[in-house]
C-alpha cells in the first residue's frame, strides 16, 4: 500500500502555468448537491456534442469504494488520461491547489491553476451553495473532459477520489453525471496506540487509504494503563519511552488535514489512567482495606483532575479538530457490589457535594462533566463512551456530550434508544461488528468485511438490531476501531492487512447505508483491485 509523500501535497510547489488567463467552461445548470452539469437522477443526461457519441451504449456508474449514490448515464467515450491531459483548478479556487496537485501526481498528468479547460482536462471548481450538503460533489464527464464541483473543498476532494478509483478500476471515467454525498457526517477509523504503539510511519500510511475511502476522522486513543504515547511538556513524567514526538504528531495532523481528515484525540478518564498513576501512585483509587484498583484514579483527590485538565489543555493546542473524546468508560469503582461501602472516601464526598442521595455514580458523572467543560470552553465538542452515562442519579451528563456507543455488555450500559429519545447525538462504534481487538479476548473475534457489508448500518448501534428509523437523524455516523488488548498478537503489517476489507465495508455503509448495489463478491473484488 502506497504511502503518500508529504511533498506531493506541499503548497509551495511552483506552477509555471498559473498565470494563464481564465476562461470558464460553460456547463448546463444543475443545483442538485451544489454541482454543475446536467441534472441526473438515474435518467439519461444531455448528450455529448460529439456526433459519434450516439454510437456508444448508455454508460454505467463509475466504480469506486464507497460506490457513488447517483449517476445519470449518457452516451459517449467518457474520459481517460491521455497525452496533454491536465488537472486545472479554476482561478479564484486556490483552496483546491492541494487537491489538484495531488490528483495530477496520482494520474501522472499535468497541473495548472487558471486557464481554459480543453479536451482531456479535469477541471476542479468550488460552487458555494448554502443548500448543498457538506462534502457533496458533482462529477460531470462529457466531451472528453471532466468537471468536478462542490460547495466545499472536501466535496471536490471526494470527487477526485471517485475519479482516481474509476481510472484505476476501468482506465476511464464513464460518460455522464455523478451526484454524490455522504449519509454520515462522522466517518472514523479509531486506533489504540496506547496499548500497541503504532509508529508514525504506520499511521501516516493509513491516512491516504482512509481518504480514498472518504473517511474523515482518525481517532487516537493514546493514553491507557499500558502506556501514554504522545510527548508532553506539562507532564513529561507520564510519557512512555515508546511514544510519538510533538513533531511527529504535527506531521500526522497536518497530513490528515490536507486529506480532509480530522484527528479525534482521547485521554480516557477516570479509568484507564494506569500510565498516569505509574508516575503518580498517590492518585490510585483504593478500597477501604487498601486494595489498589487498576487504572482508576481517586476522583476525590483534587490532584487527579488538575493533572488530567493540564494534559487536556496542552493537547487542545496540538489537535485543532472539532471533537475530543474524554473517555468515561469502565471506571472500576462502579463495578463492585456496593461502591459506597468499598470506597467510603468517595461516598463521603458524594454526600457532601450532593446531599444524602449523592453516590459514587454522581462523582463519576461529575468528573466526566468537568472534563467535558474543559473541551467545550475551547470551542470543541466533547464525546464519551456510552458506559460513562448512567440512569438516575443526582448528577446528569452534560447535554453537550455526544455518545460514542460501543457496547451493551458493560456495567452502566443502556440501550441506545434511551440516549436517542433524549435527543442526544450518537456515534456508532458497535463492538458486535466494528471492534478489531488484538488477541480476540472476551469472546471478541476479528470482524469481517462481509458481515459489516451485509448486516450493519449506522442504525445498528447495539448488537444486531437497528434502532427505529425516527432516530436516524441523531446518529452522527460511526467508526471502525482497532484495540491493542494483546499487542503482540499481530504485527502492524498484519493489522493493516486484517482491517483492509472491514474498513472498506464500514466506509461503504457510512457513505450510503442502503442495501448495496454490488454483491459482496463484486464489492470485495473491486476493493481488492483498488487497494
Helix/strand layout:
Layout: H1 6-9, E1 70-73, E2 86-89, H2 97-107, E3 110-113, E4 122-126, E5 137-142, E6 145-150, H3 153-170, E7 176-180, E8 186-192, H4 200-212, E9 217-223, H5 246-258, E10 262-269, H6 274-279, E11 284-286, E12 292-297, H7 302-318, E13 323-327, H8 339-342, H9 344-354, H10 360-377, E14 381-385, E15 402-405, H11 416-421, E16 426-428, E17 435-437, H12 449-455, E18 475-483, H13 492-511, H14 520-530
Parallel strand pairs: 2-3, 2-4, 4-6, 8-9, 8-18, 9-10, 10-13, 13-14, 14-15, 15-16, 16-18, 17-18
Antiparallel strand pairs: 1-7, 5-6, 5-7, 11-12
Helix pairs in contact: 2-3, 4-5, 7-10, 12-13
Q: What is the CA-atom radius of gyration, in angstroms? A: 25 Å
Helix content: 25-40%
Report the structural category.
alpha/beta
Q: How many helix segments?
A: 14
- Percent range for β-strand residues: 15-25%
What is the overall silhouette?
A: elongated
For the sheet with most strands, the description reads: 8 strands, parallel, barrel
Q: How many strand segments?
A: 18
Distance between the termini: 7 Å
Q: Point out poorly predicted stretches.
A: 1-44
* Biggest sheet, spatial arrangement of strands: 8-9-10-13-14-15-16-18
What integer is the average pLDDT?
92
Give descriptors for this structure.
531 residues, alpha/beta, eight-stranded parallel barrel, seven-stranded mixed sheet, disordered N terminus
How would you sum up this structure, described in words?
The protein has 531 residues and is α/β, with parallel strands linked by helices. 30% of the residues lie in helices and 18% in strands. It is built from 14 helices and 18 strands. Helix 12 (449-455) packs parallel to helix 13 (492-511). It starts with 5 loop residues before the first helix and ends with a helix. Mean pLDDT is 92; it is low at 1-44.
Amino acid at each position: 500500500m502506497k504511502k503518500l509523500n508529504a511533498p506531493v501535497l506541499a503548497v509551495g510547489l511552483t506552477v509555471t502555468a498559473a498565470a494563464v488567463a481564465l476562461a470558464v467552461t460553460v456547463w448546463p445548470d444543475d443545483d442538485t448537491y451544489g454541482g454543475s452539469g446536467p441534472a441526473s437522477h438515474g435518467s439519461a443526461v444531455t448528450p455529448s456534442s460529439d456526433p459519434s457519441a450516439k454510437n456508444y451504449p448508455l454508460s454505467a456508474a463509475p466504480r469506486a469504494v464507497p460506490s457513488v449514490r447517483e449517476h445519470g448515464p449518457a452516451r459517449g467515450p467518457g474520459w481517460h488520461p491521455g497525452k496533454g491531459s491536465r488537472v486545472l483548478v479554476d482561478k479564484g479556487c486556490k483552496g483546491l491547489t492541494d487537491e489538484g496537485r495531488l490528483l495530477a501526481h496520482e494520474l501522472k498528468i499535468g497541473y495548472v491553476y487558471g486557464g481554459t479547460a480543453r479536451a482531456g482536462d479535469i477541471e476542479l471548481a468550488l460552487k458555494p451553495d448554502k443548500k448543498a450538503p457538506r462534502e457533496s460533489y458533482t462529477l460531470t464527464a462529457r466531451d472528453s473532459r471532466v468537471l468536478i464541483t462542490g460547495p466545499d473543498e472536501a466535496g471536490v476532494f471526494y470527487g477526485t477520489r471517485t475519479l482516481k478509483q474509476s481510472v484505476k478500476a476501468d482506465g476511464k471515467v464513464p460518460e455522464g453525471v455523478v451526484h454524490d454525498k455522504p449519509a454520515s457526517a462522522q466517518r472514523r477509523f479509531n486506533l489504540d496506540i496506547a496499548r500497541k504503539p503504532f509508529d508514525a510511519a504506520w499511521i501516516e500510511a493509513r491516512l491516504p487509504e482512509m481518504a480514498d475511502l472518504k473517511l474523515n476522522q482518525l481517532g487516537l486513543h493514546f493514553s491507557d494503563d499500558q502506556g501514554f504515547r504522545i510527548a508532553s511538556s506539562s507532564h513529561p513524567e507520564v510519557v512512555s519511552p515508546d511514544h510519538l514526538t510533538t513533531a511527529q504528531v504535527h506531521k500526522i495532523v497536518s497530513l490528515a488535514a490536507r486529506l480532509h481528515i480530522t484527528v479525534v484525540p482521547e485521554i480516557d478518564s477516570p479509568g484507564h489512567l494506569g500510565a498516569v498513576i505509574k508516575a503518580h501512585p498517590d492518585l490510585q483509587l483504593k478500597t477501604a482495606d487498601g486494595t489498589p484498583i487498576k487504572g482508576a484514579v481517586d476522583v476525590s483527590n483534587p490532584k487527579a483532575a488538575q493533572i488530567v485538565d493540564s494534559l487536556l489543555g496542552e493537547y487542545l493546542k496540538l489537535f485543532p479538530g472539532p471533537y475530543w473524546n474524554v473517555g468515561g468508560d469502565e471506571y472500576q469503582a462502579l463495578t463492585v457490589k456496593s461502591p459506597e461501602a468499598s470506597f467510603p472516601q468517595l461516598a463521603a464526598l458524594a454526600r457532601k457535594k450532593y446531599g444524602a442521595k449523592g453516590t459514587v455514580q454522581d462523582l463519576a458523572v461529575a468528573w466526566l462533566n468537568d472534563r467535558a467543560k474543559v473541551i467545550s470552553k475551547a470551542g470543541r465538542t466533547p464525546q464519551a463512551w456510552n458506559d460513562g452515562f448512567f440512569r438516575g442519579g443526582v448528577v446528569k451528563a452534560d447535554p453537550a456530550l455526544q455518545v460514542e456507543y460501543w457496547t451493551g455488555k458493560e456495567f452502566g450500559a443502556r440501550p441506545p434508544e434511551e440516549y436517542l429519545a433524549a435527543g442526544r447525538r450518537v456515534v456508532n462504534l458497535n463492538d458486535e461488528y466494528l471492534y478489531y481487538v488484538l488477541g480476540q479476548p472476551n469472546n471478541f473475534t476479528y470482524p469481517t468485511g462481509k458481515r459489516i457489508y451485509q448486516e450493519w448500518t449506522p442504525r445498528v448501534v447495539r448488537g444486531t438490531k437497528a434502532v427505529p428509523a425516527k432516530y436516524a437523524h441523531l446518529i452522527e455516523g460511526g467508526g471502525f476501531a482497532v484495540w491493542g488488548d494483546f499487542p503482540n498478537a499481530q504485527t502492524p503489517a498484519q493489522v493493516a492487512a486484517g482491517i483492509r476489507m472491514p474498513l472498506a465495508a464500514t466506509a461503504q455503509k457510512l457513505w450510503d447505508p442502503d442495501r448495496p448495489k454490488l454483491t459482496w463478491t463484486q464489492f470485495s473484488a473491486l476493493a481488492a483491485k483498488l487497494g
